[in-house]
Give the backbone structure.
Amino acid sequence: MKRRGFIKASLFSGTLVGALPIVGLANNAVEVEKKSGPEFYELRVYSLKNKAQQQLVEDFWKEAAIPALNRIGSRKIGVFTEQKPEGQTKLFVVIPFSSIENYITSTARLLSDVNYQQAGAAYLNVTAAEPAYERVQSSLLQAFAGLPQMVVPENKPRLFELRRYESHSESAGKKKVEMFNKGGEISIFKRVGLTPVFFGETIFGEMRPNLTYMITFDDMDEHDRNWKVFGSDPEWKKISALPEYKDAKIVSRITRTFLLPTSFSQV
């Protein structure tokens, strides 16, 4: 499997603000996050031309975007670079939201945040001649019932693997989600050391239907060892042998990329 750029999605940040009704627009006060239901995740991928653009975008997230999103209730924000990029690395950002409403209203709240505007001025006010990035692509995911909240791993050097499972139909995609939730695949992941950070079903974005998840390891040796344990696990073999869960019936393509957290990532 090639280690290559991962998500190419079509939702630019904030487009839902114009596409969906905004109900009860909140102000910039810090909100109490509700933990009763599954989270939503915006997965952004920045395509960059050079190191100067990378530095500008990273500075924006470190100095402006993460603090501002934290203030409005979005915490545990992950910012990552590719472990082995093909050329200039892409920048991956995962932003949790406690509800769909918080996602929809987030752009408006950021735009009214004076501190955000000041701290992010170098990024927000770039000219067409010197843009901050080539393009930003975005997907919106809903967390699985089996892992409704992001799990932040121990703060130490580590490797992350981001995987996308595409399906040939909506019903097949739902069946794969069911395999993780009701079939017990998430529990097996945890038991064999495929430490999950999040699982999400893509509700807006490219290459639908698909699910996307992130797992983490200390290093590539642990990654290879734990995937091998998973593949030989008796419970996994039992589940994957069930006719309704056979990969050939519900998964048409698997794409993965390996990521490293930036120094300021909250994941």
